[in-house]
Design goal:
By secondary structure, this protein is of the alpha/beta class. It has a single domain, classed as Aldolase class I (TIM Barrel), CATH 3.20.20. The protein has helices at 50-62, 81-90, 111-121, 135-142, 147-159, 180-190, 216-226, 291-296, 301-312, 333-336; strands at 17-21, 67-71, 101-106, 125-129, 166-171, 193-198, 229-231, 241-246, 249-257, 270-273, 278-280, 289-290. Helix 1 links the parallel strand 1 and strand 2. The relative contact order is 0.16. It has a twelve-stranded mixed β-sheet with strand order 7-8-9-6-5-4-3-2-1-10-11-12. The radius of gyration is 19 Å and the shape is globular. It binds S-adenosylmethionine and iron/sulfur cluster. Iron/sulfur cluster (SF4) is lined by residues 26, 28-30, 33-34, 72-74, 107, 129, 333-334.
Length: 338
């Protein structure tokens, strides 16, 4: 690919990773995301259609996007998701395309019945959320009694070959930090990558408090004291996680994602598209850019490219969670897409 066409922000960061939210809806009520239920549903005609998502994805790919992750809300609630997966997967075949990785983040809903089909349509891998291994605590955190279903989803994803299967847990003080070692044992026994994420101020309840954040360093130390870990690479590149293997076994992995206490904005390669077609240049942006209206205005492909390039140049240098004047974005994680 011609490097001069690649998408870059004004700090010289190359943008390679597009996260697309396909719906704001969710049937879980994770307290750190959507504790109070959903706000009024977006009108259907404000949502990008699958054709529009595929069209803009093709344009992003022509600008050097290498990875696309479908997320939400709960992406598996969007009817016909498999059609979208099929059309995006076809974009991997372009001769000059750097796009090689199509992933999905899900709470696991419908995974057992859809895993094989999604794999055959060209989905490469999945990340599944699992915030507790204890049934009562799972209900307490997510608002739904679905631990067994999520465990079944992880198994289904593995047997369909949607690997490496990653499993996300948002670790919150007093809620599931007592399960850190259990998460590590689970990663080890299942041979999966367990990703432990600091709680970020993106909850719809606006109840985030700094005291609720379990620092990544503490997560590492707690696990390492019982199950020794070894850092896999001295650099995390554009990745959000520090990845650790287990000294006692080659199976499984722990990824620690610490956006609050160890900011990784300097190497950020991500850009986001909301279900209603707004580009967000950062999880914590307070502005959005209306790509949907540009596309629907009849703009030419070249005009859309110019628009995307211009928006990318406004990408923030970093988030400001740790500043005293930090303002939590109006839209929450379930809208933005994690
Ligand atoms: N519903 C899907 C799921 O839960 O995997 C996809 C969307 S969810 C918003 C994507 C990821 O964001 C999940 O792994 C979730 O745990 C994480 N997340 C949501 N709210 C968060 C918060 N306030 N801080 C950190 N991570 C959060
Ligand atoms: Fe739903 Fe995912 Fe948010 Fe939980 S984290 S409420 S599953 S969108």
């Amino acid at each position: 690919m011609d490097r001069s066409t690649e998408l870059q922000d004004s700090y010289g960061r190359r943008i390679r990773d597009l996260r697309i939210s396909v719906t704001d809806r969710c049937q879980f009520r994770c307290f750190y995301c959507l504790p109070n239920g959903e706000p009024a549903m977006a009108k259907k005609d404000t949502l990008l259609t699958f054709e529009e998502i595929a069209y803009v994805s093709d344009i992003f790919i022509s600008l050097g996007i290498e990875k696309i992750r479908l997320t939400g809300g709960e992406p598996m609630l969007r009817r016909g998701l498999e059609t979208l997966v099929g059309s995006l997967a076809k974009l991997k075949n372009g001769t000059d395309s750097a796009f090689k990785d199509l992933a999905l983040t899900t709470n696991g809903f419908k995974m057992p019945e859809m895993a094989a089909e999604l794999k055959s349509l060209g989905l490469d891998r999945v990340t599944i959320s699992l915030d507790s291994l204890d049934r009562d605590n799972f209900v307490d955190i997510t608002g739904v009694d679905k631990l067994d279903e999520v465990l079944a989803a992880i198994k289904a994803a593995k047997s369909a070959g949607l690997e490496p299967v990653k499993v996300n847990a948002v670790v919150v003080r007093g809620r599931n930090d007592h399960e850190l070692v259990d998460f590590a044992r689970f990663a080890l026994s299942e041979g999966i990558s367990m990703r432990l994420i600091e709680f970020m101020p993106l909850d719809s309840g606006h109840e985030w408090k700094r005291e609720m954040v379990v620092p990544g360093r503490e997560m590492f130390e707690t696990i390492n004291a019982t199950i020794p870990l070894s850092l896999k690479s001295e650099s995390r590149g554009a990745s959000t996680a520090w990845n650790y293997g287990f000294q006692e076994s080659g199976r499984g992995e722990i990824g620690i994602i610490a956006p609050v206490t160890e900011m990784f904005c300097g190497a950020c390669s991500r850009i986001r598209l909301t279900a209603d077609g707004q580009i967000r240049t950062c999880l914590f942006s307070n502005v959005e850019h209306n790509l949907r209206d540009v596309v629907r205005s009849g703009a030419s492909r070249a005009e859309i490219v110019d628009y995307i390039r211009g928006v990318t140049l406004t990408k923030e240098a970093s988030h400001h969670i740790n500043d005293s004047d930090f303002v939590q974005p109006e839209r929450t994680m379930s809208f933005i897409g994690g």
